[in-house]
C-alpha cells in the first residue's frame, strides 16, 4: 500500500481553497483511492470534486491548486528544484548547433 505524505503547505492550501477543517479531516479527505492510484501511475495532478487540483510529487501532496488554475502554466524548468539534466534538449541542441 502506498503511503501518502502531506506537506504543511498542502494543509494550509486545502484550508484556504477547499474547507477550513482540522488537519486530521484533510488527511482523511486526501487519503483516497484516486490519489493512491495517481501516485502509483506517477501522475502529477488529481482533480478534487470541487474542481481544485492536488499536486503530487511521488507520494507527497505538495499543494492544492484553486479550481480556476490552469496546470499548463506550471513549468518544471521554472522550479529551482528541477534538475536541468532531465530537461529536454532544445531544438537547436538537437540539431547540433
How are the SSEs ordered, and which strands pair?
Elements: E1 5-6, H1 8-17, H2 23-30, H3 33-41, E2 45-47, E3 53-57, E4 60-65, H4 91-95
Name the helix and strand elements from N-terminus to C-terminus, one letter apiece: EHHHEEEH
Question: How many domains make up the coordinates?
Answer: 1
* Mean model confidence by pLDDT: 81
Strands of the biggest beta sheet: in what spatial order?
Answer: 1-4-3-2
The gyration radius over C-alpha positions equals: 16 Å
State the helical fraction: 25-40%
Number of strands: 4
Which structural category fits the helices and strands? alpha+beta
Q: Ends: how far apart?
A: 48 Å
* Form type: globular
Low-confidence region ranges: 87-97
User: Please, how many helices?
Assistant: 4
As a percent range, the share of strand residues is 15-25%
Largest pleated sheet = 4 strands, mixed
